[in-house]
Design a protein that fits this description.
This protein is α/β, with parallel strands linked by helices. The chain has three domains: 4-86, Ribosomal Protein L15, Chain: K, domain 2; 95-269, Up-down Bundle (Four Helix Bundle (Hemerythrin (Met), subunit A)); 285-330, no CATH class. Helix content is 40%, strand content 16%. It has ten helices and eleven strands. The chain has helices at 60-68, 95-105, 107-122, 132-154, 173-195, 212-218, 226-235, 241-255, 258-269, 300-305; strands at 14-19, 22-27, 30-35, 38-42, 47-52, 56-58, 72-76, 83-86, 285-290, 312-314, 321-324. Strands 1-5-7-8 form a four-stranded mixed sheet, with helices on both faces. Strands 4-3-2-6 form a four-stranded mixed sheet. Helix 5 (173-195) runs antiparallel to helix 7 (226-235) and helix 5 crosses helix 8. The protein is globular. The termini are far apart.
């Protein structure tokens, strides 16, 4: 390795690794997975997400090693189909999070992001006169057509999306495969969002959930990745649907170069402006930069409480956050 710039970026890494019923500990300055069958080293330096299923234990030293190598840890349910908790990402800057929060909290900009996300799903611009309910209707048709096309292609009967959280085995094979595949997709998208400094909770189309933004971004890829994988696994008469769905996702993520697309796609989705939605734009602001690491400055929440500041916007300057005054239309 010639220099620090040669360290692996998120887009260059492996996607995910799911482990269950074993012990994870630091091993020879790295991390290893211990089972009754032996010890298996884990390539943490190039791994984006480590999913820990039931029966796994992990030591403090292993968690520290994973964090030092920017590998996100997610605790999930059996076969990776439920998400319980996750660690923090690699970024130490709040710039992207503040920009995302401003887009979420400004109605006009929020709407532009929603239209941009739908345009990315349909691969074409959305007419400006379409209402949100009409866009949701078009999205529903698109997804139903994707399910129907996969059903015809793989010869798997399809009667709709259906599963019970309390009775996992009651679902038919294709629905179980879809849940397992989507869980893998949510995990890797969550890792990308956190790694790039955004919040998984601040969504635009999906709202009110801790993973709303994860669902927004993951929906960009379901019809190309998880739906075909799930129907292919269901058509194979697999005896272990969940495991084969994870393997299929692993291969599909690699073949589609998913890790190289997630963060650029996030930037495209959030690349809206105050005027025409075609660029990042710059918001009217005062001339005083505010650095939240400066102890003597009065910070945003203090000034907002006293009525001296409005919501925050970001400039293009590196590591600088600026106050801004909204127009009457934005209030």
């Amino acid at each position: 390795m010639r220099n620090l710039h040669a360290l692996p970026a998120f887009r260059d890494g492996l996607s995910f690794l799911y482990l269950e019923r074993g012990h994870i500990d630091r091993h020879l300055k790295a991390v290893a997975y211990h089972t009754e069958l032996g010890v298996t080293p884990i390539p943490v330096a190039s791994l984006a997400l480590l999913m820990l299923g039931p029966g796994t234990t992990i030591t403090h030293a292993a968690v520290k090693t994973l964090a030092d190598n920017d590998c996100l840890i997610a605790w999930c349910g059996d076969a990776g189909v439920r998400f319980y908790a996750a660690g923090i990402g690699r970024t130490h800057s709040s710039r992207n999070l503040l920009r995302q929060a401003r887009l979420v909290c400004t109605p006009q900009l929020h709407k532009r992001v929603v239209y941009r996300m739908y345009a990315m799903r349909f691969k074409e611009p959305m007419p400006d006169d379409l209402e949100l309910q009409q866009l949701r209707g078009k999205e529903g048709v698109r997804v139903r057509e994707a399910y129907a096309a996969a059903s015809r292609h793989y010869g798997v009967p399809w009667s709709g999306r259906s599963y019970k959280r309390g009775d996992w085995r009651a679902a038919d094979p294709v629905n179980r495969a879809l849940s397992a595949a989507n869980a893998c997709l949510y995990g890797i998208v969550h890792a990308a969002i956190v790694a790039s400094g955004y919040s998984p909770a601040l969504g635009f189309i999906h709202t009110g959930k801790q993973l709303s933004f994860v669902y927004d971004i993951a929906d960009l890829y379901k019809t190309q990745i998880t739906i075909p994988v799930a129907f292919q696994v269901a058509a194979s008469s697999s005896t272990n649907i969940e495991r084969d769905a994870r393997y299929g996702c692993r291969d599909a993520f690699r073949q589609s170069r998913l890790l190289q697309h997630i963060i650029p796609d996030i930037e495209v989705a959030l690349h809206v402006s105050d005027d025409d939605g075609k660029g990042p734009g710059r918001t009217q602001r005062t001339t005083e930069p505010v650095d939240d690491r400066t102890e003597k400055r009065r910070l945003y929440w203090e000034r907002f409480r006293t009525g001296q500041a409005e919501p925050v916007g970001t400039g293009n300057e590196e590591n600088e956050i600026w106050w801004w005054a909204p127009t009457d239309m934005e209030r």
